[in-house]
Design goal:
alpha/beta, TIM Barrel, 2 domains, 9-stranded mixed β-sheet, 5-stranded parallel β-sheet, 19 helices
Amino acid sequence: MDLVIRGARVVDGSGDAAYTADVAIEDGRITEIHREGDAGPRPAGTRVLDAQGLALAPGFIDMHAHSDLALLRDPDHSAKAAQGVTLEVIGQDGLSYAPVDDRTLAEVRQAITGWNGDGSDIDFDWRSVGEYLDRLDRAHGGRGIPVNAAYLIPQGTVRMYAMGWEDREASPADLERMKELVAQGMEQGAVGMSSGLTYTPGMYAKDAELTELCRVVASYGGYYCPHHRSYGAGALEAYREMVELTRTAGCPLHLAHATMNFGVNKGKAPDLLALLDEALDDGADITLDTYPYTPGCTTLVAMLPSWASEGGPEAILSRLQDDGTAARIRHHMEVIGSDGCHGVPIEWDTIEISGVSDPGLASCVGKTIQRSADMRGEEPWVTARRLLINDRLGSTILQHVGHEENVRAIMRHPVHTGGSDGILQGFKPHPRAYGTFPQYLGKYVRELGVLSLEECVAHLTSRPAARLRLPDRGHVREGYRADLVLFDPETVAAGSTFDAPRTPPVGVPHVLIDGKFVIEDGRRTDVIAGRAVRRTA
């Protein structure tokens, strides 16, 4: 064999009790599992790794990632590889870079600069979903990408392509064009469709429009992954809307970063779970993902009311520069509660700047809008407006509006999976980008006992693999791909913190993709073994 992992504590992804075994690998596949006490000789290999004291699990699947350009930009990508992540699902929140034409590409690049950078270092030589996936496969001199990636068709980008940034109902011709784009993307290998229903222009879509697109996704065996219309004042209604919409369409549903945030939802996770359990008991196909932290992360411009974002980034900047319109925006945000802020009046002391596009604005990073305003002796809206204009909408934020009891309750649910929602840009990104999976294993398994080790690994491996319909990933089984992680259950922990968010995790010495070490003895190797994972029939 190419490699034998000797004497590991195998946590195989099924949720069943761990066991001790030797695991043999050849040509990127698991070829033999020899349990302790089995008859016959133990497997021999060209290389033998002593795994005593280490747990061996399938590679972790990040069900909500924002590495769309990072995979092309950074051959190291230790932010994810060092956590044990071997597969990311990108194209999230309804906004990404395929399918596009020249106009749409320019607009989406500006719209999500805060997520992925402006892309000035990227050769955007693709336009379709298939071309983007091909580009991933030939990245880094034809070697591929640092970890595997699956792609969701971004509904907001599709709408932008077909209709621009107009807040209007889709015409029959518009709808047919969008359905055609979704069908093409699915045929070319996408695993489903995402939406960002608090982001423009995706939020302008009515339920009937989304239902028709979901019918197309379902016909190809894909799933719908919405960032739905509210995580605040209308959260339960927004979850219910997505459940009913996808049941009408006959489409599997995966709820993105399924949180219950803001003061109005403190202690209300049981209400969400009861809603989901009722639908599941009635035959609905539903999964969800969460990250194990209370603050959220997005862009500052996302807080604006949707009407202020109609027409795209340049129209937003024009409105912000007009004193009368800016005053109206402020009223919606501070008094009414804008749809961009989930129907809740914004609390500036919960909005911390985590990154800026203009290095000259770096002094704002790590401070709340309220604190920056106090230091200047001005009102918070004045500070926020200036930052939006001067950074050309490129600022990212941490939004401190979560509740620990809700986080714990939701992660216990049987359909839960892990997703980092990790934005890698900015001077001070959310630590979830670098720490989500060790945080689950260290804090919520070992320290708090919210989940058992076996349960948690199943949440991070086999359950997402089942949602993605991957027949040979998510378990430690003979014949399965050797995408594996070895970690120490006694020491594994996230190193990243809010003060030092790029600190690597501890207790994850080895990570393999396609049977090759991408992390070895805790260090990143020069191996690039990831590929685009396309939808299977």
